[in-house]
Write a structure and sequence with these properties.
By secondary structure, this protein is α/β, with parallel strands linked by helices. It has two domains: 358 residues, Metal-dependent hydrolases (TIM Barrel); 57 residues. Strands 1-2-3-4-5-6-7-8 form an eight-stranded parallel beta sheet, with helices on both faces. Helix 7 crosses helix 16 and helix 11 crosses helix 12. The longest helix is centred in the first third of the chain and has 26 residues. The chain starts with 11 loop residues before the first strand and ends with a helix. The structure holds zinc ion. Zinc ion binds next to loops.
């Protein structure tokens, strides 16, 4: 890092990370896995829909030989190779390599891939610690279902619990859309719910009331284990337009899903998840438990509907009088709805914003978004985050976030918007203080 005026030496606390998270069935891989995953969108957009679904089903069930044979026959390797070449000019590719060089030294691509794989296999927590140290990160909030607090000490790695697994106790209507992303989110949600039921030592309760008791006691237990906040990732599986529903309507949806025919209308799933979101968030409000909400675009493969991830769809929830003191953080910069976030945080004093994910996907845009947010909003609203479980991307995202923030602050001082001391103060607010205040945690 060179010539940072306002952010140099200011400790960072990452508001949205996935440090330590391994998806069910995921294998240890090197840093090339990130670009290979991003290549799936290119593959999906160039092979027959049914072939793609069959290929991904084989991949995900671990049937390597069959998956490989099908991949060859439908041309997957050539499509992945083409995608990797086209991705080479993206900020993501640059950030991945910059982070790898910072951690492993200046080596050729193939060696970096192998070194990153080996470093994960040898001591993943140790590698992450090194990434935090290199980037001046004091700690991270990590979105993870469970964490081994021996390997990932709470002082540096504070877990965040998704509430989505609790919202769909009867799964989802059959997936008929493109891609594999939404079905994977659904599978992960139900996997986590099963695990929480198992930890509670019960099967799925028979009534909505009993189920609500289970959900809140499960969240209370996780809180007592060190979870400091909640997250909603449901934009990947449904629209963000959560609506308050009456008790009778929620009971009817539960009954339809619990006892009805196999194909229950999608509306029943929607009503039940609407009801459960409000029940959980009322609890979070009373407990002072902050909630992060995914807004804006999704992964590089079809699934999330960008139009229904518009943060303005959250207005019925944000405007609910019972949730006026809920600590909400709308995450990922909401791209392409960043200005919608600005307007929401302007109107709702309990709403904060983070620009996680942006630093390793965007270059100039990060500065433009920060400029708009910091000029218009009070100093307590904006937080830095990386949105990665990759130590390499953690290092580069944090460096890039510091650089973008520094540029905006320097420009603000240069044009006499802020004094030097205000710029220093903003650097500290964005890099850690706002998070520490909202989550009531120390550095
Ligand atoms: Zn994330």
């Amino acid at each position: 890092m060179t010539s940072l005026t306002y952010t140099d030496g200011v400790p960072a606390v990452d508001h949205h990370s996935h440090a330590g998270y391994v998806r069910p069935g995921q294998r240890i891989a090197g840093l090339d896995a990130y670009e290979r995953e991003n290549a799936l969108g290119h593959v999906e957009g160039n092979v027959h829909h049914d072939d793609y679904q069959r290929y991904m089903a084989l991949e995900e069930s671990g049937k390597d030989e069959e998956a490989q044979a099908l991949a060859e026959s439908i041309g997957v390797p050539a499509l992945v190779a083409a995608s990797l070449r086209f991705q080479s000019t993206t900020v993501h590719a640059r950030a991945l390599r910059d982070g790898a060089r910072a951690l492993y030294g200046d080596h050729p691509e193939a060696e970096l891939v192998e070194m990153s794989r080996q470093a994960r296999a040898d001591d993943f927590p140790g590698l992450y610690d090194r990434a935090l140290h290199l980037s001046g990160t004091a700690g991270v909030l990590t979105d993870i279902p469970e964490i081994d607090s021996e390997a990932w000490p709470h002082r540096r790695y504070k877990p965040i619990a998704r509430i989505d697994p609790y919202l769909y106790p009867f799964g989802h209507p059959r997936w008929q859309g493109r891609g594999s992303d939404t079905p994977r989110f659904r599978r992960i949600f139900s996997h986590v719910l099963d695990r929480q039921l198992e930890r509670a030592g019960i099967a799925l309760p028979g009534t909505l009331g009993e189920y609500e008791d289970f959900v809140l006691s499960s969240l209370r237990r996780r809180r007592s284990e060190g979870f400091v906040g909640l997250k909603i990732a449901s934009a990947y599986v449904r629209p963000l337009s959560f609506q308050r529903v009456g008790r009778a309507e929620a009971e009817a949806a539960w009954a339809a899903l619990a006892g009805g025919p196999r194909e229950v209308p999608e509306a029943a799933h929607r009503v039940l998840s609407d009801h459960l979101v409000f029940a959980i968030l009322e609890w979070a409000t009373a407990e002072g438990m902050p909630v992060q909400i995914h807004t804006g675009f999704g992964h590089a493969e079809p699934g999330l509907r960008v139009a229904t991830a518009d943060p303005l769809l959250l207005e019925p929830l944000l405007a609910d009088p019972a949730l006026n003191r809920l600590k909400v953080i709308l995450i990922h910069g909401g791209f392409p709805y960043s200005s919608h976030l600005t307007a929401l945080a302007h109107a709702y004093g309990n709403v904060h914003l983070d620009f996680s994910w942006m630093p390793y996907l965007h270059h100039h845009v990060v500065g433009r978004v920060l400029e708009e947010w910091l000029e218009f909003l009070p100093a307590d609203r904006v937080m830095y985050g990386t949105d990665t479980g990759s130590p390499e991307l953690h290092v580069s995202a944090t460096e890039r976030a510091r650089a973008a923030l520094d540029g905006v602050l320097a420009e603000g001082v240069g044009s006499r918007l802020w004094s030097t001391s205000q710029a220093c103060w903003l650097a500290e607010r964005v890099l850690h203080r706002n998070l520490c205040d909202v989550y009531e945690v120390g550095l």
